[in-house]
Design a protein that fits this description.
By secondary structure, this protein is an all-alpha fold. It contains four helices and no strands. The chain has one domain.
């Protein structure tokens, strides 16, 4: 990761939930995505940056788990297909960076 990404996340992780998203993952093979994800998670752990971890419940039923997985896949596909939404997310990230630097 770039130093600016690390610094941005380091300042932000105590204030908001961070959810790493791999941009343009649709242009990568499954193996490339897995390797990239592992590298990013390693960098995040090395710099002691907390990311959002969805709660796991022991009593979770199979139907709820399936619904949660469906939501995650749908959101992932939405972000891949909707460049306007992706641009909005980038705008919010830049806005947040300016806000935090004040």
């Amino acid at each position: 990761m770039k130093p600016v990404d690390i610094e941005f996340m380091r300042r932000l992780h105590t204030k908001v939930n961070l959810i790493p998203i791999i941009a343009k993952s649709d242009t990568m093979t499954d193996d490339e995505v897995l390797q990239f994800k592992a590298r990013i998670l390693s960098d995040i752990a090395h710099h002691h940056i907390d990311i959002y971890q969805a709660p796991q419940y022991e009593q979770e039923d199979e139907e709820t788990l399936a619904e949660n997985e469906e939501i995650i896949v749908s959101l992932s596909n939405l972000l891949k297909e909707n460049t306007k939404l992706t641009k909005s997310i980038r705008f919010l990230a830049r806005f947040s960076a300016k806000f935090l630097s004040q």
